[in-house]
Amino acid sequence: MAIEKKRYQVLRGYPAGGGHWTKKGDYVQLMDVQALALVQAERIVLAPEAEAVAEVATAPQAEAAPAAPAKKSTK
Questions:
Q1: Residue 49, Cβ neighbours under 10 Å: how many?
Q2: How far apart are CA 46 and CA 41, in angstroms?
Q3: Of 7, 12, 55, 61, which is most buried, counting CB atoms within 10 Å of its CB?
Q4: Are 8 and 26 within 8 A, CB to CB?
Q5: What CATH class does 6-57 carry?
Q6: pTM score
Q7: CA dist., res. 40 & res. 5, Å (int)
């Protein structure tokens, strides 16, 4: 069974862990357990489904750069 995460929009920044902070307007993917206190504190709201689908569809896909051949030294 896969863990289901939902997409939320940040209304007020909060510490995301490891010294990192979210900022207003960011989108985050959280489990219900993680989001519960942040929703109650009005720091995040559930992102509209149509908006989430549109953003994912228009996001550019990262392409992997070809690996450069390793140079061997003869020294």
A1: 10
A2: 13
A3: 7
A4: no
A5: alpha beta
A6: 0.61
A7: 18
Q: Residue 52: pLDDT above 50?
A: no
Q: Which amino acid is at 28?
A: V
Is 9 within 8 Å of 39 (Cβ atoms)?
no
Confirm if 44 and 11 have CB atoms less than 8 A apart.
yes
**pLDDT score of 56:** 54
- The torsion defined by the Cα of 7, 13, 15 and 19, in degrees rounded to 10, comes to 110
**Mean pLDDT score, 62-66:** 60
CA distance 52 to 75: 55
Distance (Å, whole) CA 13 – CA 22: 5
Please tell me the total number of residues recorded for the chain in this structure.
75
User: Is the per-residue pLDDT at 14 higher than 70?
Assistant: yes
CA–CA separation, 46 and 18 (whole Å): 24
Q: Which structure tokens are listed for 23?
A: 């900022």
